[in-house]
Structures are given as structure tokens and as C-alpha cells.
Write a structure and sequence with these properties.
The chain is α+β, with helices and mostly antiparallel strands. The chain contains ten helices and 22 strands. It folds into four domains: 52 residues; 107 residues, Sandwich (Immunoglobulin-like), CATH 2.60.40.10; 37 residues, no CATH class; 197 residues, Rossmann fold, CATH 3.40.50. It has an eight-stranded mixed sheet with strand order 17-16-15-18-19-20-22-21, with helices on both faces. Strands 5-4-8-9 form a four-stranded antiparallel sheet, covered by helices on one side. The longest helix has 23 residues. The C terminus is likely disordered.
């Protein structure tokens, strides 16, 4: 009975109150007709609640969200299919989907009943200006009767998950052919003739395609010979992201950490598009992956936050055991940390660093602290450049494109240090070339 009266609307409670008053007056006067009216006013909400409750547990809900992973400020379409699996037509339905606060207000729908075996689709768009993984739902439905006397709520268990990735900035393809290209005509090499399987040409074996038969060698050796095999190879790259809280400045979407995450996502997607076999490393070590690098990268960067660590030693150790190129997105580095990172470069493999400029600091920072950060950034640039790294400082998403272009531009003769921008109001981009000697 408590649940029943809790389902009554304001109109339904007014009917019950009026019915009780009419019935009491009919007993006291006495007036049988007034008593009958009072009984009708009391029974009508109860009958409406009974009719509404019959449809309460005969609704099914399925959800679909496309796409399930979107960059910030991009819309996703969510569709909820509500089906009536009973033999009775439902009453008026009031549907409301639960949304996190950052995705906006809750969408509400009014359905004028669903026929037996019928269904309705409810669609709406969502977008977020902050990255993260959001749980949407469950759908809450209130079943109302025709007279508006009763509303019975029901919450489904199914939910949808939306992954909002950092902003991905398209980067230009490097003009330096061969060093940054993955699979392709320049990305092929033949297997060295170091064993019987590697000799080119070699004798025909069961399973070899006839298109690989080398007829000139066949005529020379008197038996079927096939061409040597060609294998595609993929360049490898390590993407390093500095997540130390103390290395970044600012809060919210305008912080240097959010810029670093966006840069990591942009460069990672660019490397994937160029055919690189890449991995993601933070100051805490390598991020393991069980799926493709692209999926792991976007899912990780969607929820990654700053760490409380102060050292990059574990991340440098993970870089040292890898091979291939290194692309590092860094916050503020001390001279010792810059030396540790510089030593992670192996042989003649390219190493590039994007150093977040001190200009992205919080407005409440004192000039002394900002100046100290700028001095430390300049020292880190010099140390990395002297170790053969190409370094660029970035303070905005717009300057990332220019910095990436400079990093991949062939070093000109006599380029020994930092290329400074033209004016103080421009996006500051500095590129350090290969150090002489």
C-alpha cells in the first residue's frame, strides 16, 4: 500500500482525498449517493495503478551508441529501443535517460503508449568538451495511466559506455622520405641469404605459387626454382608521455598536461597511419597492450591523469630496452632528468622531443617561478640537442603542427642550435637540429 500511494500523482492523491471526504460525508449525513461517489473517487486511482503495474515488467530496452569512441567536441548518436513484449498496450510512457553532468542535461521523451509487440526508438546526440570514459544510462521509464492519476517508475539495467578521446590534430606527412615511412615501396627489404630458406632463388617446394617460379633460374639449374621472398618491415617507435604532476602547469582543458595528452594522441595516430609499430611509455613505464596500438592509445589517453611521481627513471628504463625512434612529449625537466632521457637514445635512431613551453603556466604563478621554468626548459633543450635529439618547444595546439613540421624537416648545413620565432605574439616554436660533432 505504501508503494501504491507513492505512485499516485498529485491528481491521483486529490482524487483519493476527495473520495475519502465524500465517503465520510455520505456516512455522516447519511447520503448513499454521496457515499457511492466517494467510493468511486477512491477506487479509480487504485484501478489505474493496477492497470499501469501490469505493463511495468513487460518492457525491454536495448541500446546502441555510434561511434562508441569520439574525440572531444565531436557528437555521438545514442539510440534506445524500447519494446513492449506484453499482449497489452501500455499507457502513457515518460522516459528519461541518465547522463553524467559533463554530457549535459538528461534527455526526456513522452510516448503515447506502445502497442502489444511494438517498439519505439529514442535517439539523441551527445558530445563532451572533456575527455574521459562515461557511463550513460540506465533508462528510467514512468508508466502513466490515461487519466494521469498514477506514475509507476522502472529503471532498466543496461547502460552504454562512451569513450571521449583527446583532441586529435592532423599532422603533415614528413617530406623526408624513407626515415618516417612505414610499409611501402621504400619499406621493403629482402631476407638476407643467411640460410637455406633465405637463398634467392631457391628450389620449388610444395605449396609455392606458380607465379613465383623464376624461369631463367629453372632453365639454368634444370629444376623448378622460385624467387626469393620479400618481407614487409615496419619501423618501430616509442612514444613517451610525461605525466608527472609537478612537471605541468595549469588546470582544466587549458593546462599543459591536456596539451601533452592531445599531442601524444595526435602523434600516436600519425605514427599508426605511417605504418609504425609503436608503443606508449610514460614516466611510470610502458603501457601494456592487448589490442592494436591505436585502440590502446586512445583508450589509455582518454582516462589518463597526472601522476604523483617526480622521477622519469622507470620510463627511461623502458625506453632503453626498446628499439627504433623515440618521440617524447615532456613537461619541465631538470638537467639530470634531461641527461637520463638523452641517454635513452640508441645508436643513430632518430630521437625527437616536444617540450611544453613555460608560457602555458597558470596565471597566478609568480614571475620568479615562471622564469625558473623557462631556464630549466632552455637547459633541457641544450642537453637533448647536444645528445643528437631534435627538440621543439610548444605552448598551444596550433604550434604543434609547426613544431612537428620543423622536427621532420631535414637539418640544414650549419644548423647548430635553436631556431627562434619571429615575434613575441606568435606561437613560440623552437627546433633544435642535430648537434655538430
Amino acid at each position: 500500500m505504501r508503494a501504491l500511494f507513492g505512485a499516485l500523482t498529485t491528481r491521483g492523491r486529490s482524487f483519493v482525498a476527495a473520495g475519502v471526504a465524500a465517503a465520510a460525508c455520505g456516512l455522516l449525513i447519511p447520503e448513499p449517493d454521496l457515499l457511492r461517489v466517494g467510493a468511486l473517487l477512491i477506487v479509480l486511482p487504485l484501478l489505474s495503478a493496477l492497470a499501469a503495474s501490469r505493463a511495468r515488467y513487460r518492457l525491454s530496452c536495448t541500446r546502441r551508441i555510434l561511434p562508441a569512441r569520439v574525440p572531444t567536441d565531436h557528437p555521438a548518436q545514442l539510440t534506445v529501443r524500447l519494446a513492449n513484449v506484453s499482449r497489452l498496450r501500455t499507457g502513457l510512457l515518460l522516459a528519461e535517460d541518465a547522463l553524467p553532468y559533463s554530457l549535459g542535461s538528461r534527455p526526456r521523451f513522452v510516448l503515447d503508449g506502445i502497442e502489444a509487440g511494438g517498439s519505439r526508438e529514442l535517439s539523441y546526440q551527445i558530445r563532451s568538451d572533456t575527455r574521459g570514459r562515461f557511463t550513460i544510462g540506465p533508462l528510467q521509464v514512468r508508466v502513466a495511466d490515461t487519466f494521469g492519476l498514477v506514475e509507476i517508475g522502472r529503471s532498466f539495467s543496461s547502460v552504454s559506455t562512451l569513450t571521449v578521446t583527446p583532441r586529435i590534430i592532423p599532422l603533415a606527412r614528413p617530406s623526408l622520405a624513407g626515415s618516417w615511412l612505414g610499409d611501402g615501396d621504400r619499406g621493403k627489404r629482402t631476407i638476407a641469404a643467411s640460410g637455406e630458406d633465405d637463398v634467392a632463388p631457391r628450389a620449388y617446394r610444395d605449396g609455392d605459387g606458380l607465379r613465383r617460379v623464376h624461369w631463367r633460374s629453372t632453365a639454368r639449374y634444370g629444376e623448378l626454382m622460385v624467387r626469393r621472398e620479400e618481407q614487409h618491415w615496419r619501423n618501430t617507435a616509442s612514444l613517451f608521455l610525461d605525466t608527472r604532476r609537478g612537471a605541468h602547469t595549469g588546470t582544466g582543458p587549458s593546462s599543459s598536461f591536456e596539451l601533452a595528452v592531445s599531442a601524444a594522441a595526435s602523434i600516436g595516430m600519425h605514427l599508426t597511419g605511417e605504418g609504425f609499430d609503436a608503443r606508449l611509455v610514460t614516466d611510470a613505464g610502458e603501457i601494456p597492450r592487448q589490442d592494436t596500438f591505436q585502440d590502446m592509445l586512445l583508450d589509455t589517453l582518454a582516462v589518463i591523469g597526472t601522476s604523483r611521481g617526480t622521477s622519469i627513471r622507470d620510463g627511461v628504463a623502458a625506453l632503453a630496452v626498446g628499439s627504433g625512434q623515440i618521440v617524447a612529449i615532456l613537461g619541465t625537466l631538470s638537467a639530470e632528468q634531461a641527461r637520463q632521457l638523452a641517454a635513452a637514445r640508441r645508436g643513430g635512431a632518430p630521437a625527437m622531443a616536444l617540450l611544453l613551453a613555460a608560457g602555458a603556466s597558470r596565471p597566478d604563478r609568480s614571475r620568479a617561478i615562471a622564469g625558473d621554468r623557462a631556464d630549466r626548459a632552455d637547459g633541457a633543450v641544450d642537453i637533448l640537442a647536444s645528445a643528437g635529439w631534435r627538440v621543439a618547444t610548444v605552448n598551444s595546439a596550433a604550434s604543434l603542427i609547426a613544431a612537428w613540421d620543423r622536427l621532420n624537416r631535414p637539418a640544414s648545413d650549419g644548423e647548430t642550435g635553436v631556431l627562434h620565432p619571429g615575434g613575441p605574439d606568435d606561437d613560440r616554436v623552437a627546433a633544435a637540429g642535430q648537434a655538430q660533432g
